[in-house]
Amino acid sequence: MSTKLASQWALKILFLIGSIALISLISETRQTANSHSIAQQIAPVGNPPPNLLKPPKLKTSPSPPVTEAPKPPQQPLVFAPPAQFRSQIVYKASINNSKVIALTFDDGPSPETLKILEVLHKHNAVATFFCLGANLREYPEIAKRVVQAGNAIGNHSWHHYSHNVTEKTASDEIDNTGVHIYRSTGAKSFLFRPPGGRLNNGLADYAKKKNYVVVMWSIDPKDFLQPPAAAIARSVLSQATSGAIVLLHDGGGNRQQTVEALSAIIPKLKQQGYRFVTVPQLLQMQAGQKQRIANQKSP
Ligand SMILES: [Zn+2]
């Protein structure tokens, strides 16, 4: 065989091997494509193939299923006095079987409120905050934190007017503030503190007509004048009695002296055996006490 003939044969053999390899590759590709289309028929797009649904085997024993407790229906939080105090003016409560005091803060909410909340939280005490509608609109998140921390919230009107107002203005002042108390905290309140403590300019009368209790105070250290913290503390501590309602402020400017005084007042009164309660709790205690006395007297 000549060299030329040998190389022609070698080319033919190579061509044959290449053709066989190409045919087998095409056939394999078709099979794969078919198997994909079958898989797609079994498991439509969106569902994983059945074998992927099997949970992986856990080495440790599985934890019991977490069952969520049924949620109670959402009831709005209501800060209301017992029925006997509706439309009444209170200055303090008559409590004779335990030592309790209600701290109150007016003119907030404001960034100063957060400092007051911090001191209350530190000493595990609660208070009542009489808010202005205008400030509630500006600081709804702070009002929310007041209520979330277990404090009570009350209505201090919208603008803090001291002049005489018509019934229409009184309604705007008090009703709109009530709406913003609800919007910011989810609570309804029937506690009203008249601005400047005025009982005769139309606001307190409207509040009484709407079943609010008008909450005055029995101790006023005049903290809004920003006296030294020691003077505020001395004033409160020297007048403290069970059932007292203390007037303080968390709005209307810098309240650093009030915050400092509070840090002294709370632990000192606790040492003397006092507990701090909200105004509704205080009035509830008086109502419960009278009820018990009435029950004891009945034959
Ligand atoms: Zn005020």
Search tags:
alpha/beta; 299 residues; TIM Barrel; three-stranded parallel beta sheet; five-stranded parallel beta sheet; binds zinc ion; 13% strand
CATH class category: Alpha Beta
Based on Cα principal axes, name the global outline: globular
The largest pleated sheet is described as:
5 strands, parallel
The secondary-structure element order is HHEEEHEHHEHEEHEHEHEH
Count of all domains: 1
Ligands in the structure?
zinc ion
Quick structural summary:
With 299 residues, the chain is of the alpha/beta class. It has one domain: Glycoside hydrolase/deacetylase (TIM Barrel, Alpha-Beta Barrel), CATH 3.20.20.370.
Provide an overview of this structure:
By secondary structure, this protein is an alpha/beta fold. It has one domain (77-297): TIM Barrel, CATH 3.20.20. It contains 10 helices and 10 strands. The chain has helices at 3-42, 50-53, 111-122, 133-138, 140-148, 167-185, 203-209, 229-239, 256-271, 279-297; strands at residues 77-79, 89-90, 100-108, 128-131, 152-155, 187-189, 191-192, 213-215, 244-249, 275-276. The strands form 3 sheets. Strands 3, 4, 5, 9 and 10 form a 5-stranded parallel sheet that branches. The protein has a 3-stranded parallel sheet with strand order 2-8-7. The longest helix has 40 residues, at 3-42. It is globular, with a radius of gyration of 38 Å. It starts with a helix and ends with a helix. Bound molecules: zinc ion (ZN). Zinc ion (ZN) binds at residues 106-107, 156, 160, 195.
